[in-house]
Amino acid sequence: MSAINSNRKRVGLSALLLSPQPGSYRQAGIHSYIHGILANLPAEHPALTYTALVTAGAADFGTALRWRNVSPAARQPLVRILWEQFVQPLVCKHERFDLLHAMAFVVPLLATLPTVATIYDLTFRKLPQRFRAANRAYLSLFARLSCRRAARVIAISHSTKRDVMQAYGIEGNHIDVIYPGLRVGMRRAAPRAVAEFREQRGLPARFILYLGTIEPRKNLTVLVAAYKQAQLENVKLVCAGGQGWMYADVFRAVEELHLSREVLFPGYVPEAELPLWYSAAEAFVYPSAYEGFGLPVLEALACGTPVITTTAGSLVEVAGNAAVLCAPDDAPALADAIVRVMGDPLLRGQLAASGPLQADRFCWQEAGKRTAATHLRALSPQH
């Protein structure tokens, strides 16, 4: 923990969505991004010093940041919203922050200091029918107000930047694109380790993997339908990840298509096991209807697993030329892509070789440096 230097500007990092709950869908994309940024901000910046605001128990990894725990009750969405809007401005004054970085969409509108807002995606606008009504209403209002109120906006992809510009009329020079990076150790596992893991987990010899939250935006009903149409022999479909919201349709589709023995749901995957899951799979499929980034695609690429994904949102940015792409919401096109990849060992080899090269373009250390640069811009009179 670094001491606060009075000669440096004090930056508060509102990180209440840094989840302490293993196995929760809340430890998915936003949690991973916040964790990655906090772990990679410059430890001894000459002009800035950092304090992270987290719920008790969330700050369990070592960095040079200063931490301030807030009530665990703030893990509850309504309590968190009220805390962010009404208590957080008081905390900012008490801590004498010069800048507050709201790391998940919404800045405190009553705050008198400059703010930075990180925007991950605009799913609540793009796919409102796949979002809970209360969440949609809250984010639709507060994300718009936050983007207009903030001194700077961070978007996690150029796709998200374009969406923010179009939706809220924000000038492009007001928005900084800062990609996430790869988790440490996200590389292909050794064959022996994969074989042992496959035996321990009772995994099939051949399977296609989806890994992510089970929720409507991920288009798992489309994936299940495409898997049925592909009619692959002795190839299972494994849909791994925590249950998010509005997921009943996925399990219903599996039942209606009589695929209960072919489609497996192992649940939440611990971070330490991720390379083993990716490495054990013959292909990785991510059929999302919209993404602000798509970390699982990046992770699968890094592990040399052939990737099939869609052209939705930022996924083209992430996958580059190292994946097979198809239109979202198109089960026949996805089925064709699955058949093509699973039936062509040469193509799988090409994808496996190009994936890690594409993944190496994304670096957490660079993300940390760029975030600090955004903080400096937000503190400048011109910002």
Topology:
Blueprint: E1 9-14, H1 29-40, E2 48-55, E3 66-70, H2 77-95, E4 99-102, E5 115-119, H3 123-126, H4 133-149, E6 152-155, H5 158-168, E7 175-177, H6 191-201, E8 207-211, H7 220-230, E9 236-240, H8 248-256, E10 263-267, H9 274-280, E11 283-286, H10 295-302, E12 307-310, H11 315-319, E13 324-326, H12 331-342, H13 345-359, H14 364-379
Structure description:
It is a single chain. With 383 residues, this protein is an alpha/beta fold. Strands 3-2-1-4-5-6-7 form a 7-stranded parallel sheet, sandwiched between helices. It has a 6-stranded parallel sheet with strand order 10-9-8-11-12-13, sandwiched between helices. The chain has 14 helices and 13 strands. The radius of gyration is 21 Å and the shape is globular. It has helices at residues 29-40, 77-95, 123-126, 133-149, 158-168, 191-201, 220-230, 248-256, 274-280, 295-302, 315-319, 331-342, 345-359, 364-379, and strands at residues 9-14, 48-55, 66-70, 99-102, 115-119, 152-155, 175-177, 207-211, 236-240, 263-267, 283-286, 307-310, 324-326. Helix 7 (220-230) packs across helix 12 (331-342). The model is unreliable at 23-27 (pLDDT under 50). Helix content is 41%, strand content 16%.
SSE order, as H and E? EHEEHEEHHEHEHEHEHEHEHEHEHHH
CATH hierarchy: architecture of the largest domain: 3-Layer(aba) Sandwich
Note the total helix count. Answer: 14
Rounded to an integer, what's the Rg over CA atoms? 21 Å
Structural class, by secondary structure, is alpha/beta
Largest sheet: 7 strands, parallel
Give the terminus-to-terminus CA distance. Answer: 29 Å
Could you tell me the CATH topology label of the largest domain.
Rossmann fold
Low-confidence parts lasting 5 or more residues at pLDDT below 50? 23-27
> What's the CATH class of the largest domain, please?
Alpha Beta
Shape category? globular
Taking strands numbered 1, 2, ... along the chain, how are they ordered across the largest sheet? 3-2-1-4-5-6-7
